[in-house]
Structures are given as C-alpha cells and as structure tokens.
Amino acid sequence: MDPQQLPSYADVVVVGAGPAGLTCALSLAQNGLSPVIVDARPAAQIVMRATVIHPNTLEDLDLLGCADELVAAGICTDCLTWKSQNEQAIGVIRFSALKSITKYPFSLFIPQHVVERVLTKKLAAAGIRVIRSKKVIAMREAVDNTHVVCELQMESGETLRTKYVVGADGAQSTIRTMAGIRYIDPHTGKIAASEGASRGSLFVLADLTLAEPLPPNVSRDEAVMILTRGGPLALVPLPDAETESQTGRMFRFATVVMPGDPEPPRNPDAAYFQRIIDKRGPGSHRSDGIKPPQIARVFETSRHQAFSAVAEKFFLRAHGGCIVLVGDAGHKHSPAGGQGLNLGVCDAVRAGRDIAKHFQSPLTTDVDSILETYAIRRKEIAAQVIQVAETIETMQNPATWWGIIVRNVVLRLVLLIPAMNRAVAFRMSGLGYREKQ
Known about the structure:
7-stranded mixed β-sheet; 8-stranded mixed β-sheet; FAD/NAD(P)-binding domain-containing protein; FAD-bd; flavoprotein; 21 strands; 2 domains; alpha+beta
C-alpha cells in the first residue's frame, strides 16, 4: 500500500503533524494502537517555532525513547540568566538545583523542525508515517458495520472513518471548530482573539546568523537575555548540524514592541533587526569598546501577537466519535518562558495513553471518565502555564522606569535565596505538573 494513500478506517486519527500530533501518535503506538496521522501541509516545514524543551518534557519524551537523541542534537543549559542593559546579571535561574529529582536538570535549546524530524523518524521505525496534503473540511456521524463512527471528509474528496479524532492542528484548529468547542480568553470569558478579548505583547522574531567572529559577550552556546529600559531582547542559539556548516550558528532573535515604538513592518529586513540589536542588544550600553554583534543574514521573520486562550473542553463526544484536543488546539499563551511546545507535548503523551486505555476498556456507563479526567487535568495545567507565561511577560516588560528598578532589585534578591531559586526553577521546568506514578 502506498504510504501516502489514505485508508478507509483507523481506530484513531491524529490531525496535525506538529510536535504535539507526532508525540501523540508515538504515545498511541507505544500503548498498542496504530494511529493514522494526516496533515494539510504537503511537506514538513522549517519554520519559526518553539526553541526550548524543559526538564518535565524531556522526561515525557524519554518515555517514548526520544529524549537522548534530542539532547545530543541540542544545546543543554543548566541555567537561564537575565541581564540588565549594562549586562550585569539581574537573576540566574539554576535548573542544576533540580538534579536530585530529574534525569534532565537543564533546558534544551533545539529548533522545532529538528524535534519533528526525530519524532517522525521514531514513528517511521514503528511503521507509522504522516499522510500529507490531507486537509479535513468536515466531520459527520456515520455507520460502519453497524457501529457509529466519525467520518472525516478531506478537501481531496476522500473520507476516513474513525472512533477517535485527536485535534493537534494548532490554535486555529479546524477540529476544535467543527466539534463546536469554544476557544475562550481565560480573563474575559470572551472568544479568544475576538473583539473585547485581552491581548499581550506584540513580539517580533527572527532566525538569523551573526557575523563571525562573535563578540566576547555573545556565546555560541548560551542564551543572551537582556532587559533594557527600551525593552527586552533575547538571542537564543539554535544548533542544527545539517545547516550550521553552511550558515554558521543560527540564533533566534526575539523582542517586544514597547509602547511608543513604531509599528514593525510586515516583513522586517536585516536593517530593522540590526537597529534593535544596536539599541537593546549585547554591547549596546557598554563603555569598554565591545560593540553589538552584526547580523550576517536573516532567514525568516515573524510577528506574534500574544494572547491567552483555553478550550472549553479537551474531550467531547461529537459527530459519532471521541474528540480529544492536544497542544495549541487546546490552549494558547504568551511565548515568554518558552512553555508552548512543552505543554503540547505533555498533553500528547497523556492523550495517547488515555485514549488507548479508553479504547481497551469495556463499554460501561463510566468509561468516558478516563478521557474526562484527562480533559480536566490538562485544562487545569494549561491555566497554570498561562499564568506563568503572563507573569514572565509582565516581569520582562514593566510599564514604568520605577517598575524596572523594582523588578531588577526584587528579581536579584529573590533568586539569590537558594530555596526561592529552586522553587522558580521547579515551576519553569514543568516538573510541578508531574503526575504521581
């Protein structure tokens, strides 16, 4: 059978082949099911997405046999440092303080497409491939051999029947919309991204390389996170052995459009990003002769309007099947703190496990409690992660000059206390969301 040919039936269909969808498929396979993965895109893409994997997520990926390969492909950092505009440390979060409770006492910098490549390879070894150019345009109830199932209609005209649909198709999820599940702003109760819903900061992002040799205050292996009075700026190293020999070390550039800043262009060029580095970046406020790094090449840029949202339900019986949401289909939040991919992957590991448990359980009046428990727990965790991300965003972007002073003093003092430092590292690591085994 052609690996890109759509079957007529599968017990579980995962819609979306990002990290959450691929991880869910792996979890399903590990728990005895053979899912079909469909994705609207014709091919995997190298695009600007998440860059950091935290300890709790690495532990979950270790359960799927992927963590070691990812660690080998990325950059491990056992601390995250925020610096003032004169590049003095304001606060250092030390993940190394967690070494007694996790196998992975560090965060991992790695491009999302490398994560997807490793997951896809692992799936292929299990005989599972992504079927591409399959856009779901409708869901409806159908009868298959006297059993009620969900029938997915593809834009190509094909249909696929299933008992379970995993919506892993992002914040604009077609599956969530067709299931009638609302995407709600947790603060206002309004439809997220609609009029009246709350907004966070406008982020400007780029993947770029810097001219060699790098200035001595820019590391090839450590993130630079500077909180200036003009706004924050981050340069995060992104290793990729397949491209680095041709392009040099790639960095993810991220900053926030502050009040009073001009509207960024739709497609900002290298000169735009260089002006921001010259104003906010490493070397921008030094008097010792070290100058800001120079951009060699910009590969991709984007603007990201942060907003928070959470699905009303993560599990629903609809259109003849069980609809389960994972990743951005279930929640959305500020990129501050790098929690997005992490939350989605952890959703997916548990969704795969619980769908398999539900599938293998006898039909009783309370069998749905398995997936209802998943839904309640993941929604609770999503709300907690949204709070963490919004707190970090607020901390990085005080509205006043005196807010900056207070932020710097409090952050420095709090993180100098070992117990407080460990508590902050524990919260950012995601380990606090671990379920008891």
